[in-house]
Amino acid sequence: MPAPVIAAQSLVKTYKVKGKPDFVAVDGLSFEVAPGESFGLLGPNGAGKSTTMKMIGAVSTRSGGDLQILGLDPDRYGPEIRSRLGVVPQQDNLDGELNARENLYIYGRYFGLPGKVCHRKADELLAFAQLEDKATSKVDQLSGGMKRRLTIARGLINDPRILLLDEPTTGLDPQARHVLWDRLFRLKERGTTLVLTTHYMDEAEQLCDRLIVVDKGRIMAEGTPASLIREHSSREVLEVRFGSDRNAQVAERLQGIGDRLEVLPDRILIYTHDGETALERITAAGLEPITSLVRRSSLEDVFLRLTGRSLIE
Ligand SMILES: Nc1ncnc2c1ncn2[C@@H]1O[C@H](COP(=O)(O)OP(=O)(O)O)[C@@H](O)[C@H]1O
Ligand SMILES: [Mg+2]
Description:
Rossmann fold; ABC_transporter_ATP-binding; 13 strands; alpha/beta; binds adenosine-5'-diphosphate; single chain; binds magnesium ion; 6-stranded mixed beta sheet; 4-stranded antiparallel beta sheet; antibiotic resistance; 313 residues; transport
């Protein structure tokens, strides 16, 4: 086993809140990230994902536990660590007054790269981010997806060993998300270590080799997307709708069909290895759902199982 590039042991972050006890945002996270791995933190808003990313990025100090980034303690080696990381924060912080190319160039200079190198890297990265024709456009004029790709390009200017991405596609439309996923996939293929946070289960399934499911600052589960689904859900899910005022009442008559039921406000989820057979049993019992759908289990089902809540509320 190669040495991990990130090792967190019982990592804690508390925030001071006026007139109240300290608020525990990260409550004892332990995890390791191997070189070249694509590692995810999946959890709802407020889970402590950004707080964890800021500690990994050596821009926020931990309140407890141990943390090593590339073998270094961020408390002592902040600048060294920051110079070897690429960071894509949750909120884009590009300079809107400058054009796309200038944003890359200036960031490279900030890292102390020679001007000539910055020019060359800016061109390479604009090509990578598929923004060549936007090189001289002001950042304020770019779409959300373009800004996100530019922020990723900027994060790559120092050839980082690790790229940290905090909610890389939140707020983007489906097409822009797919373009972004494709770019991140390429980075992964090149061996860049990716650490990303997301509250989208499909994003985690697409991009993460391994992930932790986080809720209220704690790890609820850890594994590959497939192993998490295997461990915490059934193979298939039958979704049936009987109308919002009838779902709860009908659910009582569905007990015993499938391994487990989840009654959501708008639908009932029946966890089973065989959704079609479950549906046949329901209709055989004289119940006619308005709509029905059989699908594979997803990380959303894992999260629902572990927390009793939906990931996106
Ligand atoms: N600077 C801060 N001061 C006080 N509380 C904070 C601060 N930053 C974040 N929090 C709180 O910590 C919790 C975790 O926040 P955050 O790490 O941003 O979660 P996530 O990124 O998973 O949505 C939230 O309840 C948030 O309100
Ligand atoms: Mg966040």
